[in-house]
Write a structure and sequence with these properties.
Elements (H helix, E strand, L loop, with lengths): L2 H18 L3 H11 L5 H16 L1 H8 L4 H12 L4 H9 L10 H8 L9 H4 L7 H8 L3 H8 L5 E5 L6 H7 L6 E2 L6 E4 L15 H4 L3 E3 L2 H7 L9 E4 L6 H10 L4 E5 L9 H7 L5 E4 L14 E7 L14 H4 L2 H18 L3 E11 L8 H10 L3 E3 L4 E3 L1 H4 L4 E8 L2
Parallel strand pairs: 5-6, 5-8, 6-7, 8-9
Antiparallel strand pairs: 1-3, 1-4, 2-3, 9-12, 10-12, 11-12
This protein binds S-adenosylmethionine.
The site of S-adenosylmethionine has 18 residues, from helix 14 and helix 17.
């Protein structure tokens, strides 16, 4: 495909998402299924452009003075992909499948710089107005800068699986992909964010992945898993195990010593844990699913650590899922708060006296984080928070946004 056709495809996907309230993934798939003529480079180009426009939806419309996907795409090419005006004009106007010639106003806007100094924080930071009080509560004056970092493209982080390898081996195996130490943790490895129109390296097809040497896991998620502390030889319950990202990190920290249990109230989400844990060389994991009767029998007040990676809005992961910030509603946020209180109350009885309950979210909002912890401690005076919570953000830590609190049960 030539550039003009690719740009029209990106505009079509963005319009389809809006008209039918589709997630980006589904709208891109629908386009891809119908576009047999599109090769892998075309698909990477279109999806990269769609995601970049979603990351910067408001600031692009603001700079272009119009609320259409046609101008947002042009703005993204100019200011995010660094195309010059002549190239944009040619792709829009000169090619048979292009979006159509630029207007004078569009050309004029594209000739200037992207200046967001006068834009209000939700525009400069690219998030919906209704979230501004939530962002302001956590970040105050720096909220536009924090949100702008959440609108950047994310690197691919890996966790060297110490049950099978170490960071040195993984760095060597993925040298050609530009692997570097991610910093902060000895076993965290980072591949740089891909160029705008390219796909991230398909690390899951690398032979080292099949051998279980590493997992794809954001550095923030790895740091959050580390809140479990020294757990080798202990009894550990991963109460919201989902697909097992944290489970495998906990397993590596345990070094196959002690007993790890994985549970999730939604059994379907746990489908991947068995093959993943086998590949990773985990031998001390028991999977407990709600398909069994009384799946957590025998674990009451027995756990040294109960890890609650709670359901949340996922606002800390907007770099990777930029459509989520536009789809989130106040009602969904409210619903999550109820789920978070419930999951903490359900998980707490498994902690033994003197044991620890770890509460983690990948959200930035205090309502899902500090407020839930405070409400829990009020309902459960036998627990206490002994250290300041963990807070990670793309701007300050170069990770996805994460929150974590360690709550100790009285001996
Ligand atoms: C953030 S996701 C977990 C991600 C997973 N820990 C990982 O690292 O890959 C939250 C999970 O909590 C589960 N969940 C929600 N409510 C729950 C409850 N009351 N009890 C147990 N699990 C629950 C959801 O099904 C979902 O899989």
């Amino acid at each position: 495909m030539r550039d003009g056709g690719r740009l029209s495809a990106a505009i079509e996907v963005l319009s389809d998402m809006e008209a039918r309230h589709k997630p980006a993934r589904l709208a891109l798939k629908a386009w891809g299924d119908g576009a047999r003529y599109a090769g892998s480079k075309d698909r990477a180009f279109v999806s990269g452009l769609v995601l970049d426009v979603l990351r910067h939806r408001r600031s692009l419309a603001w700079a272009m003075g119009a609320e259409t996907d046609r101008v947002r795409v042009a703005g993204a090419l100019r200011w995010l992909w660094d195309w010059d005006l002549a190239r944009i004009a040619a792709a829009y106007g000169d090619e048979p499948h292009g979006p159509g010639p630029l207007t004078n106003e569009e050309s004029k806007r594209l000739s200037g710089d992207l200046d967001l100094s006068q834009a209000p924080p939700p525009v400069a930071g690219d998030y919906p107005d209704w979230l501004d009080p939530h962002m302001a509560r956590v970040f105050g004056e720096t909220r536009a800068a924090e949100a702008a970092a959440l609108a950047a493209r994310a690197p691919v982080d890996l966790r060297a699986n110490t049950l099978k390898a170490d960071a040195g081996k993984v760095l060597h195996a993925l040298e050609a992909q530009g692997a570097e130490p991610a910093g902060r943790l000895p076993n965290a490895v980072r591949l740089p964010a891909p160029a705008a129109s390219e796909r991230a390296a398909a690390v899951e097809v690398h032979p080292a992945f099949a051998k279980g040497w590493f997992e794809v896991q954001d550095l923030g998620s790895q740091i959050a898993a580390g809140l479990a502390g020294e757990i080798a030889g202990k009894q550990v319950l991963d109460y919201c195990a989902g697909g097992g990202g944290k489970t495998l990190a906990l397993a590596a920290a345990m070094g196959n010593k002690g007993q790890l249990y994985a549970y999730d109230s939604d059994a379907r989400r746990m489908t991947d844990i068995t093959p993943r844990s086998q590949r990773a060389g985990v031998r001390n994991l028991q999977i407990r699913t709600p398909m069994e009767k009384d799946p957590l029998r025998g674990l009451d007040a027995k756990m040294d650590v109960v890890f609650v990676d709670a359901p949340c809005t996922g606002s800390g992961t907007w770099r990777r899922h930029p459509d989520a910030k536009w789809r989130l509603s106040a009602e969904q946020l409210e619903r999550r708060l109820g789920e978070q209180d419930a999951v903490l109350d359900q998980a707490a009885p498994f902690v033994k006296p003197g044991g620890r309950l770890i509460y983690v979210t990948c959200s930035l909002f205090a309502e899902e984080n500090e407020d839930r912890v405070a409400a829990f401690l009020e309902r459960h005076p036998d627990f206490a928070s002994t250290e300041p919570p963990l807070r990670l953000s793309p701007l300050t830590d170069g990770t996805d946004g994460f929150f974590g609190a360690v709550l100790e049960k009285a001996p």
